[in-house]
Amino acid sequence: MKEVKHGKTYNTATATKLGDHKAYGRGDFRYIKESLYVTNNGSYFRAGEGGAMTAYAESYDGMTSGGDGIIPIPIEEALAWCERHAVAYDTIVDHFAVSEA
Fold it and tell me: How far apart are CA 95 and CA 16, in angstroms?
């Protein structure tokens, strides 16, 4: 998947995938299947698909349906996504500035 957002290119084929997340069945409005990526320049983004009640929803003629796409996110949100979706410890410490408690 490739998209241009805010004057920057995002490409799942050339970015590094950090993790995956999937919830609910395809017929559910909350269905989501997405992956977190980091570009070679250090920009983070989510790429995936989801139902009408997700960030991937699309509106047509006053109706909302599922959709797909790329969502650029700040590094803080990327780290929170990794923690929330149980991304491997080594992946987190390799890509984020985390400190010992």
Answer: 10
Residue given tokens 């997405």 in the structure block: 34
- For residue 83 the two structure tokens come to 């923690």
> For residue 56, what is the DSSP state?
T
| Dihedral sign for Cα atoms in the order 84, 38, 69, 19 | negative
Q: Strand runs (DSSP E) across the chain, as ranges?
A: 2-5, 8-11, 16-23, 32-38, 44-50, 58-60, 63-65, 67-73
What would the pLDDT profile of 9-44 be if each residue is shown by its tens digit? 999 999 999 999 999 999 899 999 999 999 999 999
